[in-house]
Structures are given as structure tokens and as C-alpha cells.
Amino acid sequence: MDSIDEAIIRCVLRDARATYAEIGKEAGLSPSAAKRRLDRLVTTGAIRGFSAVVDPQAMAWRTEAFVEVYCKGNPTPAALTKALHDIPEVVEACTVSGAADAMLYLLARDIPHLEQAIQRVRSAPLIDRTESAIVLSRLLTRPRL
Questions:
Q1: CATH 1.10.10.10, the chain: domain bounds
Q2: Given this structure, which CATH class describes domain 63-134?
Q3: What is the pLDDT of residue 55?
Q4: How far is CA 84 from CA 35, 47, 52, in A?
Q5: Which helix (H) or strand (E) holds 5?
Q6: What is the pTM of this model?
Q7: Do the beta carbons of residue 108 and residue 77 sit within 8 Å?
Q8: What pLDDT score does 18 carry?
Q9: Chosen CATH of 3-43 out of 1.10.10.10, 1.10.8.60, 2.40.10.220, 1.10.760.10
Q10: pLDDT one-digit tens code per residue, 120-143
């Protein structure tokens, strides 16, 4: 990966719908060269896909929480992923170091909806308990690399 690839990635992170001309301008390439480079980044897996970013406010899902998950036994990350996969309120899930086995980021309409989602998380057979922290306000959000 070189500085041209990095410029292309920055451009599509900012706007996944950028035209090849816009990408090329940012990376110092012609539109056709920008397309070839972008296609290579996708083929090699450096860019895994393109997606729409939906504003949770538009869906009226305004309640956010971070949930620590403590498991029974020592489940694999794959087993934990499978247990959480069908809970749409779980937006992100990571295994973590420390006392908890995993950390989840949940989005919900309101507190009752959040409570229902946490109950679904707790009902997974491999989950022992959870500890939750509700987000009061967002201080900083940056696009991810």
C-alpha cells in the first residue's frame, strides 16, 4: 500500500459514492487509473466493501449503551459471534482483555427497547451476566480506517 492507495481509501471513507474522477483527482490519477487502483484494493481485500451509513437519529434509535458481557466457561469468539448475530441492536461486539469477555455497543429506540435487547443478550446460553453503561452524550466520533 502506498500514498496513492491511502488517498483513494481516504476519499472513499469520506464518500463511498465518489466518482472515479473525484477519486482520481484526490489521488493524482486519471479516472480510469483510479478505477483500476480501487478495483485492486477491493480484490486484495484492503477494501472489504461499501455500505450506507444510516443516521440512528433518522431511525429514531437514540439510546446507546456499552455492555460488558461475562460468559459461562470459555466460549470461542465464533460461538459468541453466533450467539449475538441475530440481535440487531448489537451494532458492534469485540472480545476484550480484563474481567469481561466481550464489550458490546447497542443502539435502541428508548430505554424499554434497550432493556429488551439486553434481555435477549442475557438469554444466550453462554452468557452469565452483563454490566451496562448508557451513553449520555457523544463527545467525539471519527470515521474509521
A1: 3-43
A2: alpha beta
A3: 72
A4: 37, 25, 22
A5: helix 3-14
A6: 0.67
A7: no
A8: 94
A9: 1.10.10.10
A10: 999 999 999 999 999 999 898 876
